[in-house]
Amino acid sequence: MKNHCAxxxxxxxxxxxxxxxxxxxxxxxxxxxxMLMDKAREAGHSIIYIQHSEGAGSxxxxxxxxxxxxxxxxPIAGDLVIEKETPDSFHETNLHLKLQEDGVTELILTGMQTxxxxxxxxxxxxxxxxxxxxxxxAHSTWHSNTLQAEQIIEHHNTVLRLFANMVDTxxxx
Length: 173
Description:
Radius of gyration: 15 Å
CATH class: Alpha Beta
CATH topology: Rossmann fold
Number of strands: 6
Strand content: 15-25%
């Protein structure tokens, strides 16, 4: 029988680490996700990768090098990869069905982009009845025209407390 908990790694793809405009604290993010993956595997939890796809010419164009999941957290046999085209990991994907098939009732969320795909997936998972754990120190974004990345992350950690348990990488699982 599968474990009722799954680690959801959202959009941690090569293009997000472009040297010209890298995601905020990208190396630390990758290290924390590696720690979460190790803990999840040790506990027997499923690991599910969400992979964002965009149209031709985009850095996240399906099949291009930038679209690939970051090599430092490459999926292994038994891990699930789900492609999406919107910020909501559940919208027009088979994620909910796969989670139901595996008896998953609890999710641990990590990845990017904080204010888009992490936020939207967190809220949707909550609305679908999952127990959601957002790893507050293991999601990231970029600076915007009005806010620094760390402000965006902190703001979302505050707001998303209504939809998720806030956990740290060290204390999760």
